[in-house]
Amino acid sequence: MMYRTGRSAIPNVTFMKTILLLITVLFSSMALSSCTNDEGETEFDRITPEEEQQTALAKTEQKEQVH
Fold first, then answer.
1. What is the pTM of this model?
2. What is the pLDDT of residues 32-45, one digit of tens each?
3. What percent of the chain is predicted at pLDDT more than 70?
4. How far apart are CA 12 and CA 26, in angstroms?
5. Nearest Cα to 50, choosing from 42, 58, 41, 39?
């Protein structure tokens, strides 16, 4: 004879999916927050076309002076 309890022996699948989703979101947020750049500066310097042209002109003048 089997006695029935108020709860099933298998946990609620929806509850398990919710817990798994929360764990996934937690680990994802931890991974993203650890990969941020806290230096505040960009790695690349932004230059205008005029600055680029002046730099190229200065380089060619230096090469001419060396030769």
1. 0.40
2. 887 766 666 666 67
3. 66
4. 21
5. 58
Residue 9, CB-side half-sphere exposure with 13 Å CA sphere:
3
Greatest C-alpha distance within the chain = 103
Cβ 47 vs Cβ 55: under 8 Å:
yes
Backbone angles phi, psi at 56, to 5 degrees: -65, -40
- Residue 4 in tokens: 């029935």
Q: What is the DSSP string of 1-67?
A: -PPP-SS-SSPPHHHHHHHHHHHHHHHHHHHHHHT---S-S-SS----HHHHHHHHHHHHHHHHHH-
